[in-house]
Design goal:
This protein has 138 residues and is mostly beta strands. The chain has two helices and nine strands, in the order H-E-E-E-E-E-E-E-E-H-E. It has a five-stranded mixed beta sheet, with no helix packed on it. Strands 2-9-8-7 form a four-stranded antiparallel beta sheet, with no helix packed on it. The longest helix has 15 residues, at 2-16.
Protein backbone atom coordinates (compact mmCIF):
# COMPACT_ATOMS: atom_id res chain seq x y z
CA UNK A 1 0.00 0.00 0.00
CA UNK A 2 2.74 2.44 0.97
CA UNK A 3 4.71 1.60 -2.19
CA UNK A 4 1.64 2.29 -4.36
CA UNK A 5 1.19 5.66 -2.66
CA UNK A 6 4.85 6.55 -3.30
CA UNK A 7 4.52 5.58 -6.95
CA UNK A 8 1.31 7.63 -7.32
CA UNK A 9 2.91 10.70 -5.69
CA UNK A 10 5.99 10.33 -7.90
CA UNK A 11 3.85 10.17 -11.05
CA UNK A 12 1.92 13.28 -9.98
CA UNK A 13 5.20 15.15 -9.51
CA UNK A 14 6.44 14.06 -12.94
CA UNK A 15 3.16 15.04 -14.61
CA UNK A 16 3.09 18.44 -12.92
CA UNK A 17 6.63 19.28 -14.04
CA UNK A 18 6.91 21.86 -16.84
CA UNK A 19 3.22 22.70 -17.05
CA UNK A 20 4.09 26.20 -18.26
CA UNK A 21 6.31 26.33 -21.36
CA UNK A 22 8.05 29.41 -19.91
CA UNK A 23 8.89 27.67 -16.64
CA UNK A 24 12.47 26.53 -16.05
CA UNK A 25 12.44 23.00 -14.67
CA UNK A 26 13.24 19.39 -15.38
CA UNK A 27 17.03 19.68 -15.67
CA UNK A 28 18.67 17.50 -18.29
CA UNK A 29 17.31 16.03 -21.49
CA UNK A 30 13.86 14.46 -21.45
CA UNK A 31 13.39 10.94 -22.70
CA UNK A 32 10.36 10.29 -24.89
CA UNK A 33 8.82 7.10 -26.23
CA UNK A 34 8.37 6.30 -29.91
CA UNK A 35 4.81 6.95 -31.05
CA UNK A 36 3.87 9.15 -28.08
CA UNK A 37 3.23 12.87 -28.46
CA UNK A 38 5.49 15.17 -26.44
CA UNK A 39 5.95 18.89 -25.94
CA UNK A 40 9.29 20.57 -26.50
CA UNK A 41 10.41 24.19 -26.08
CA UNK A 42 12.84 26.19 -28.21
CA UNK A 43 16.36 25.16 -27.17
CA UNK A 44 15.20 21.98 -25.45
CA UNK A 45 16.56 18.52 -26.27
CA UNK A 46 14.86 15.14 -26.00
CA UNK A 47 16.24 11.65 -26.42
CA UNK A 48 14.22 8.85 -27.94
CA UNK A 49 13.95 5.87 -25.58
CA UNK A 50 15.87 2.76 -26.61
CA UNK A 51 17.61 4.51 -29.50
CA UNK A 52 20.58 6.76 -30.20
CA UNK A 53 18.32 9.49 -31.62
CA UNK A 54 18.50 12.96 -30.04
CA UNK A 55 16.19 15.80 -31.13
CA UNK A 56 16.62 19.51 -30.36
CA UNK A 57 14.09 22.25 -31.14
CA UNK A 58 16.69 24.64 -32.58
CA UNK A 59 14.69 27.71 -33.50
CA UNK A 60 11.47 29.35 -34.50
CA UNK A 61 11.80 30.48 -38.12
CA UNK A 62 8.44 32.25 -38.42
CA UNK A 63 5.00 32.39 -36.86
CA UNK A 64 2.05 33.80 -38.75
CA UNK A 65 -0.46 31.28 -37.34
CA UNK A 66 -3.83 32.79 -36.57
CA UNK A 67 -4.19 33.12 -32.77
CA UNK A 68 -7.09 31.22 -31.13
CA UNK A 69 -8.79 34.44 -30.05
CA UNK A 70 -8.65 36.23 -33.44
CA UNK A 71 -10.61 35.72 -36.67
CA UNK A 72 -8.28 35.40 -39.67
CA UNK A 73 -8.77 35.00 -43.42
CA UNK A 74 -6.11 32.26 -43.60
CA UNK A 75 -4.68 29.82 -41.08
CA UNK A 76 -1.13 31.16 -41.50
CA UNK A 77 2.01 29.11 -40.89
CA UNK A 78 4.45 28.19 -38.16
CA UNK A 79 7.95 27.19 -39.29
CA UNK A 80 10.61 25.69 -37.03
CA UNK A 81 14.06 24.16 -37.36
CA UNK A 82 15.05 21.00 -35.52
CA UNK A 83 18.30 19.13 -35.21
CA UNK A 84 17.94 15.37 -35.16
CA UNK A 85 21.17 13.59 -34.29
CA UNK A 86 23.25 16.21 -36.11
CA UNK A 87 20.96 16.65 -39.13
CA UNK A 88 19.09 19.94 -39.60
CA UNK A 89 15.44 19.67 -40.66
CA UNK A 90 12.61 22.17 -41.18
CA UNK A 91 8.96 21.59 -40.27
CA UNK A 92 5.88 23.76 -40.56
CA UNK A 93 2.18 23.86 -39.74
CA UNK A 94 -0.61 25.70 -41.49
CA UNK A 95 -1.16 26.81 -45.06
CA UNK A 96 0.80 24.69 -47.59
CA UNK A 97 3.00 23.25 -44.86
CA UNK A 98 5.29 20.27 -44.46
CA UNK A 99 4.50 18.90 -41.00
CA UNK A 100 6.34 15.56 -41.38
CA UNK A 101 9.99 14.90 -42.17
CA UNK A 102 12.05 11.71 -42.26
CA UNK A 103 15.38 10.86 -40.65
CA UNK A 104 16.84 7.41 -41.38
CA UNK A 105 13.98 5.03 -40.44
CA UNK A 106 12.10 7.57 -38.31
CA UNK A 107 9.28 10.01 -39.12
CA UNK A 108 9.10 13.24 -37.14
CA UNK A 109 5.75 15.03 -37.09
CA UNK A 110 5.04 18.57 -35.92
CA UNK A 111 1.50 18.16 -34.53
CA UNK A 112 0.56 21.56 -33.08
CA UNK A 113 1.66 24.77 -31.44
CA UNK A 114 1.34 24.46 -27.66
CA UNK A 115 2.37 28.01 -26.70
CA UNK A 116 1.78 30.88 -27.53
CA UNK A 117 -1.69 30.35 -29.01
CA UNK A 118 -3.44 33.63 -28.05
CA UNK A 119 -2.70 37.11 -29.38
CA UNK A 120 -1.71 38.46 -25.94
CA UNK A 121 0.80 35.59 -25.53
CA UNK A 122 2.24 36.24 -29.00
CA UNK A 123 2.59 39.96 -28.23
CA UNK A 124 4.73 39.15 -25.19
CA UNK A 125 8.42 39.44 -26.10
CA UNK A 126 9.47 36.92 -23.44
CA UNK A 127 7.34 34.02 -24.69
CA UNK A 128 9.15 30.74 -25.19
CA UNK A 129 7.63 28.76 -28.03
CA UNK A 130 6.59 25.18 -27.34
CA UNK A 131 5.29 22.67 -29.88
CA UNK A 132 3.87 19.17 -29.74
CA UNK A 133 5.65 16.52 -31.79
CA UNK A 134 5.66 12.77 -32.32
CA UNK A 135 8.41 10.44 -33.56
CA UNK A 136 7.59 7.05 -35.08
CA UNK A 137 9.44 4.39 -37.03
CA UNK A 138 8.84 4.66 -40.78
Amino acid sequence: MRRSLCIAVGMMLILSCCQSPNEECCDGPKEVMLGQSFSIKVGETVTIAQSAVVLTFESLVSDSLCPEDVECVTQGTLSIEINISGTEKALSLGDNSKSITDYKDYSIELERLVYPTKQSEKDSNNSTYAVQMKITRS
